[in-house]
Amino acid sequence: MQKSEQRGAARAQGAVPIKRGRRVANKAQPTRNSAANAARARNAAMPPRAWLAAALAAAAAAQSHDVTLVTQATVEKLWLFPELCERWRGPMALTLWVPDVAVVEQAYATATQAATSCADATDGGSVSIHVEVQRSNEAYPVNRLRNIGLRSVNTSHVLVSDADFLPSRGLRDAIRAKAHWLANEKLALVVPAFQRKGGRCKTLESCRERLEPLPTTVPGRFGQLARCLREKDCLVFQGDNSPQSHGTTDSSRWLEGDETVRPIECFRSNRYEPYVVVSMAQMPLYDERFAGYGKNKIQHVSHLRRMGYLFAVLPRHFLIHVPHPRSGSKKEWLNSYQTHSAVDTLYTKFLKEIDARYGAATRVHLCSQVDGDFRRAKRRWAGA
Q1: How many whole angstroms separate alpha carbon 313 and alpha carbon 260?
Q2: Which residues sit opposite 165 in a β-bridge?
Q3: C-alpha of 179 from chain center
Q4: Of 89, 126, 130, residue with least CA distance to 111
């Protein structure tokens, strides 16, 4: 069998769903908060037939929206998978990247064993596993791996994450509860990203020793994250070396907020690259020319902006990065001017391509542009 045929067979074999876990219904408990009282008052004022129609419509909307978590990894990062399953509890798509076709069987067996823990944790969804073999001398093909996962998604929405991130507990349910927002097919719902400090662990083993057991060391709930931030054991993702990457999320405001989704009126920087929940209806695939480290996610955010997407921040839930040794791709990005320059050149080319396709205008402008427009308008008003 030729190598290309082996790769195709490996990918086909990898797309095997794990059996669904059993769904357990939870009996709703009465609540005394003001929102619930107001809802009961509205329902009491409605004619019985109208109330039933509204209830059925709300239930149908909630059922029609679900979200798949799409991620990619090398085999070494599968140790995080059981905790990922336990926290997400929903449909997932995992694409594994292996260096040679000879290890496909072993990699698939390892992934399947890790995914077995998802069977009981996964509520109302399945886990699909794909194995992709490295092509000759290619850098880590992160966007190709993302697209392989995206092509297996059967839900209305998707959250594309990275293998070294864990979701907060209940994130999937929190997303599904925002049915009104999810109805907008051109909304990118931002999931705030943070990171757990772990020192400069240079090996995977040393990282695991510092972090296990994961349920106690890596925050899974809003209160735990807030405490971790206060104690300076956590910080905004990349806040120490690239604050523009997630600064627009405005995590300080998010921490003080309530359960309300907050629209983003402007971007503080063109380098903003949040993790977002988007509808599958119009979402473009990732550009597979971007491989290795650098610009592979921001190109997708830029694409969404040019297509006219709006951005809004999900309250009270988050993703959190787990420390790991620096990857070979990042080392090359940091140490090779040639690699860095080539990625920057490709990104500039990509921006010109989407500007030509959609036009340079976006629905979410830079804050500096918005402020400048306001100041110019103010001067015009003063001179009138």
Answers
A1: 9
A2: 321
A3: 18
A4: 130
Which residues have a Cβ under 8 Å from the Cβ of 340 and sit 6 or more positions away? 294, 333, 334
| Residue 194, in any domain of the structure | yes
Task: Please write the tens of the pLDDT for every residue from 90-122.
Answer: 999 999 998 888 888 888 888 888 777 676 655
DSSP alpha helix (H) spans, the chain: 3-14, 34-45, 48-64, 81-88, 104-116, 118-121, 142-150, 171-176, 179-182, 204-211, 214-217, 222-230, 251-256, 298-306, 328-335, 337-358, 367-383
HSE of 64 in the Cβ direction (CA atoms, 13 Å)? 13
By CB neighbour count within 10 A (0-12 exposed, 13-18 middle, 19+ buried), where does 307 fall? middle
Instruction: Evaluate whether 169 touches 294 at the Cβ level (below 8 Å).
Output: no
Whether 172 and 161 have beta carbons less than 8 Å apart is answered as no
Beta pairing class for 193-196 and 127-133: unpaired
- Residue 244 placed within a domain: yes
Domain membership flag for residue 48? no
Does residue 37 lie in a domain region?
A: no
What's the CA gap between 275 and 305, in Å, rounded? 14
Residue 85: Cβ-neighbour burial (10 angstroms; 0-12, 13-18, 19+):
buried
Find residue 157's DSSP bridge partners: 67, 279
Strand, helix or coil at 327?
A: coil
Here the CATH number for the domain that contains residue 268 is 3.90.550
pLDDT band at 350 (very low <50, low <70, confident <90, very high): very high
Number of structural domains the chain divides into = 1
